């Protein structure tokens, strides 16, 4: 064993911060979520802005809490997750590094991934649920943040 010091990078793994969603999209998601038929309204927002991670995560959460068949929430969360991977790659993410909750613009992706993990566990897709849980911990070692668990749709 050598007495030479081990050189560690002081900055740690790279961190990716997604660009914020446009104000009009965020406003549309908020209006849709607050309306009377949130599932239909959020579905319309997701269709109008299919790249919106906030819209897909909100749709999945609304479906999940509405008692709809879990397959619908699973589909919304999976769409948000895959759209999020596309946006991460476009932002320079190369398959590793942090994507932390502390950055509000990352939350749509993390909510979709967390929702996918929950619904996958609920429908018996244990392998996928385990992969999602591990991925969340790799992306944000502090996962789950207390405010994510208390109210996944809240922007802090």
Summarize the structure in words:
With 156 residues, this protein is mainly alpha-helical. It has a single domain, classed as Alpha Horseshoe (Serine Threonine Protein Phosphatase 5, Tetratricopeptide repeat), CATH 1.25.40.10. It contains 7 helices and no strands. The protein is globular and about 45 Å long. The N and C termini lie far apart (48 Å).
Which key phrases capture this entry?
single chain, about 160 residues, mainly alpha, Serine Threonine Protein Phosphatase 5, Tetratricopeptide repeat, 7 helices
Regarding CATH, which class?
Mainly Alpha
DSSP summary, beta strand count: 0
Task: Write down the Rg.
Answer: 17 Å
Q: Give the distance, in angstroms, between the N- and C-terminal Cα atoms.
A: 48 Å
- Main sheet specs: none
CATH superfamily (homologous) name? Tetratricopeptide repeat domain
Oligomer: single chain
Number of domains: 1
Mean pLDDT: 90
Low-confidence parts, pLDDT < 50 over ≥5 residues? 4-8, 150-156
* Succession of helices and strands: HHHHHHH
Helical percent range?
A: 55-70%
Secondary-structure-derived class: mainly alpha
Q: In the CATH hierarchy, what is the architecture at level 2? A: Alpha Horseshoe
- List the total number of helices: 7
CATH topology heading: Serine Threonine Protein Phosphatase 5, Tetratricopeptide repeat
- Tell me the strand percentage band: under 5%
Shape: globular
